[in-house]
Amino acid sequence: MHGWTHTIMNARLIKTDHPADHTLGFVIEVDEPFEFRAGQSCDLTLVNPPHEDGKGSTRTFSITSAPSESPRLMFATRQTGSAFKRSLEDGLLGMAIEVDGPWGSFVLHDDAARPAVLLAGGIGITPFRSMIKDAVERRLAHAITLLYSNRTQSSAAFFSDFVTWSHVKRNFTFVPTLTDPPADSSWHARTGVIDGGLIAEQRGSAAAPIYYAAGPAAFVKAMRRALFDAHVRPSDIQTEEFPGY
Ligand SMILES: Cc1cc2nc3c(=O)[nH]c(=O)nc-3n(C[C@H](O)[C@H](O)[C@H](O)COP(=O)(O)OP(=O)(O)OC[C@H]3O[C@@H](n4cnc5c(N)ncnc54)[C@H](O)[C@@H]3O)c2cc1C
């Protein structure tokens, strides 16, 4: 038995869009004040979903909007064809959703003297978008570097937000990389996976960074290996694994 109780809150779907290829963005509005820290997640349950497939109508999602926007919460997910996601894609505005949370300790550390290096694989960008937007809005002093890996640019959700914020926040560095770059010369940034070499390259002369990795399980596993290769201490690594991919 927990020594505490918490309330499941009611929310409604208010908007859907496509922030990248095969990616569904959606915004819900919670009926009451909802406090969370950038990087946290919550469990969403579709109350009366139009589609069902036996895998249940609850999923965990990282909140991709900033705390300042609450009680509106934005999420993003890859479209897999699951009944849960098809129900959201149908985008019945006003659809009832229950919110349980916020959960998790995948949040930016307090000590601004230590840089943050964020490693995002595909849809793993969701908690980082919240953290970076929050850092920009609250003028946090942390130096932040985002290494963002996608197959193609059109699959990289929120790409233009990071370009904008890299101009607004002095010590925010955006390092996108594509593993399946276009054959022509239209892509001018990095190509290839995030490996130990790329991670070591980002380390400045300041205090040792804290590293955050988020994405599908295979990505997080690859990042653990890359961080090991770059001689990063395990105690300086935080991870958020998205199961189901
Ligand atoms: C902290 C956290 C944050 C996440 N954030 C995001 C996000 O921002 N965007 C996003 O797209 N996805 C996120 N996920 C993953 C998400 O919850 C789904 O698992 C994923 O999107 C696949 O859902 P699906 O409907 O496409 O797949 P399906 O195969 O239809 O669903 C996956 C099924 O497996 C179940 N399941 C998953 N993991 C486990 C487990 N460990 N043990 C038992 N059952 C399990 C789920 O409850 C569900 O029933 C997050 C997961 C976690 C834990």
How is this structure best described in words?
This protein folds into 2 domains: 9-103, Beta Barrel (Elongation Factor Tu (Ef-tu), domain 3); 116-242, 3-Layer(aba) Sandwich (Rossmann fold). The protein is α/β, with parallel strands linked by helices. It has helices spanning 83-89, 126-137, 159-168, 196-201, 217-229; strands at 9-20, 23-30, 41-46, 58-62, 72-78, 96-103, 116-121, 144-150, 172-178, 190-191, 210-216, 237-242. The strands form 2 sheets. A 6-stranded antiparallel beta sheet has the order 4-3-6-1-2-5, covered by helices on one side. It has a 6-stranded parallel beta sheet with strand order 10-9-8-7-11-12, sandwiched between helices. β1 (9-20) and β2 form a beta hairpin. α2 packs parallel to α3. The chain contains 5 helices and 12 strands. The site of flavin-adenine dinucleotide (FAD) has 21 residues, from β4, β5, α1 and β12.
Report the CATH superfamily of the largest domain: Nucleotide-binding domain of ferredoxin-NADP reductase (FNR) module
Within the largest sheet, what's the order of strands? 4-3-6-1-2-5
Report the major sheet: 6 strands, antiparallel
Q: Overall mean pLDDT score?
A: 95
Number of domains: 2
Q: Using the CA coordinates, give the radius of gyration.
A: 18 Å
Share of helix, binned: 10-25%
What order do the SSEs take from the amino end to the carboxyl end, as H and E? EEEEEHEEHEHEEHEHE
User: What are the segments in which pLDDT stays under 50 over at least 5 consecutive residues?
Assistant: none
Name the shape in a single word.
Answer: globular
Tally of separate helices: 5
**Which CATH architecture of the largest domain?**
3-Layer(aba) Sandwich
Distance between the termini: 32 Å
CATH level 1 name of the largest domain: Alpha Beta
Q: Return the CATH topology of the largest domain.
A: Rossmann fold
Overall SS class = alpha/beta
